[in-house]
Amino acid sequence: MAPPDFPPQLHEETSIDSQSKPISTVLIFIAMHTEALPLVQRFQLKEAADSVYPKGVPWVRYHGKYKNLQLNIVQPGKDPVLGVDSVGTISASLVTYASVLALKPDLIINAGTAGGFKAKGAAIGDVFLASEVAFHDRRIPIPVFDLYGVGLRQACSTSNITQELNLKTGRLSTGDSLDMSPHDEASINANEATIKDMEGAAVAYVADLLKVPVIFLKAVTDIVDGDKPTAEEFLQNLTAVTAALDETVAKVIDFINGKCISEL
């Protein structure tokens, strides 16, 4: 089904004061260590010695000061049994929720890689600033529950960032599979998505729940409607595209410094 009309912006309940005060604490959620490492090194962040998370979870936090900002990069870490990055919506929502409660950020940035659709103008290495996010694999064909399943949410308004950095924009669709089934494809088309990932809409749900502004920066590693196998193309381009993501996130952080939410 087609997504509903835009809901109220995620953060309309945010107080006028929080909209107009300079951003101080930024929470950057990144699912994969490979995606996070260049930013950790760029900003010279240190892994937190005293965890703000429950004992025994594999979640990781890097933190440090950059200009006027307190930066926190958080990751789900490695699966304790299989040793791979804990990608997907469940880890994303848990880590984001725990991090917001503990760190009380003024802004959340979900940065990472994504698949892109060439039919919508996406190319390998493009970095998109997502305008809206929705799920494509929560199909509940019951009135109203169907809208809940899609979970369409609008990101924080970032017209000034988009213009200043000349970033592409488009809708982001989220699901827990790297590949795309026919059912997923139909839902993604209904979502009118330009890019697809495995975490964004989950982060948006938590941000909406806790009323924290959130933006989404997604770099295209693979062309979903192209002629190459998704997994193969993703792995082939991951390193180079992560470098593009690193550069863009750094520019966004520099733009944010000294500004308030209403100036983004």
From TrEMBL:
One Pfam family this chain carries? PNP_UDP_1
Q: Domain Nucleoside phosphorylase spans what residues?
A: 26-253
Matching entries from CDD domains are given as:
MTAN
Q: Name one GO molecular function term.
A: methylthioadenosine nucleosidase activity
Alphabetized InterPro entries for the sequence: MTAN, Nucleoside_phosphorylase_d, Nucleoside_phosphorylase_sf
GO BP, one annotated term = nucleoside metabolic process
Q: Write down the PANTHER family for this protein, in alphabetical order.
A: 5'-METHYLTHIOADENOSINE NUCLEOSIDASE, 5'-METHYLTHIOADENOSINE/S-ADENOSYLHOMOCYSTEINE NUCLEOSIDASE 1
Q: What is this protein called?
A: Nucleoside phosphorylase domain-containing protein
Species of provenance: Saponaria officinalis
